[in-house]
Specification:
The chain has 10 helices and 8 strands. By secondary structure, the chain is of the alpha/beta class. Strand 1, helix 1 and strand 2 form a beta-alpha-beta unit. The mean pLDDT is about 90.
Length: about 325
């Protein structure tokens, strides 16, 4: 295969769930997919099992919780000679049962280290690659979540607490032990995840403000619906894993299949209808047949430009870019 004839996308966390089905959907659209995963054999097996054509993907190792691994991935990707037309920041860790924070090799709380700082570093390092793309509108797409957007009902649920970055007191203090929360307050594992996803949406808007006009790169986030049965929830109690999908299917009506979520990610990556930058795309909390994607408003927490600029500066320092 002449890979250079195809648009290339990197998808983090593509060994299961939404990332895997997004890889399948984009491969079917004649894209070449780099599946950036922590567990390479698992990703290879998943791609084969799903029937992704062998000449439409490559699996490469990355652990977003380790900044050195992120840098090693970027170096390895560049050695392949592949162009880059799109980056999908999909991978996430969710560890709601932790009573004490787990830490990255750099000493940062692991949810924020992986979901926010790992993707921040990856995005910053690959901006120059996206700029060089011959694609008419290279895209950097980040998976958001309703639970981090207080403009929506799911973002108001106080279990264990809504996403809230405060004044970034935890980051200002260096974010190493004993500090484990961005707002500097006592550790709550579920909130740490929500905060990390709020950071994702804040940084996507900040990328848009800083780079879109000069580079033409399209920066967007999306919530494809509630994919209640993915491996993201593998660390939740077994009862939750049984009840949550049923609840989303029958009560909230927010459930979407992994396949449909993957198709929606592929749309935001490849479809001309999603060429607007600085947008958070949604299909709504309650799924309705035939509903088209729309631009979902984000909360004041996500749109505070002064806080976003400070989050950017602190994140740069924490990943060694400042």
């Amino acid at each position: 295969m002449n890979q250079s004839a195809h648009s290339t996308v990197i998808i983090t966390g593509a060994s299961s769930g939404v990332g895997l089905y997004a890889a399948l959907a984009l491969a079917k659209r004649d894209w070449f997919v780099v599946m950036a995963c922590r567990d390479v054999p698992k990703a290879e097996q998943a791609a084969r099992a799903l029937g992704i054509p062998k000449d439409r993907y490559a699996v490469m190792a990355i652990d977003l919780g380790s900044q050195q691994s992120v840098r090693d991935f970027v170096s390895a990707f560049r050695r392949t000679g592949y162009p880059l037309h799109a980056l999908v920041n999909n991978a996430a860790v969710y560890l709601p049962r932790l009573e004490e924070p787990a830490r990255s090799p750099e000493g940062y709380e692991i949810s924020v280290a992986t979901n926010h700082l790992g993707h921040f570093l990856l995005s910053r390092l690959l901006l120059s690659d996206l700029e060089q793309a011959s694609h008419p509108a290279p895209r950097l797409v980040t998976l958001g979540t309703v639970t981090a957007n207080s403009e929506e009902f799911g973002g108001k649920v106080p279990i264990p607490a809504p996403a809230d970055l405060g004044d970034l007191q935890g980051l200002e203090a260096g974010f190493r032990a004993p500090v484990a929360m961005i707002d500097g307050k006592p550790f709550k594992a579920g909130k740490a995840y929500k905060d990390s996803k709020l950071c994702n949406m804040v940084i996507s808007r900040e990328l848009h403000r800083r780079y879109h006009a000069d580079t033409g790169i399209v920066f967007s986030t999306l919530y494809p619906g509630c994919v209640a049965d993915t491996a993201l929830f593998r660390h939740t109690p077994r009862a939750f894993q049984r009840i949550f999908p049923w609840f989303q299917k029958n009560i909230t009506k927010g459930y979407v299949t992994q396949e449909l979520a993957g198709e929606r990610v592929a749309d935001v990556v490849a479809d001309g209808a999603f060429s607007q930058s600085g947008v958070h795309w949604s299909w709504g909390n309650r799924q309705k047949a035939g509903r088209q994607a729309f631009s979902q408003a984000l909360s004041a927490k996500a749109n505070n430009e002064a806080r976003a600029s400070r989050l950017w500066d602190l994140s740069e320092r924490m990943v060694g870019l400042a």
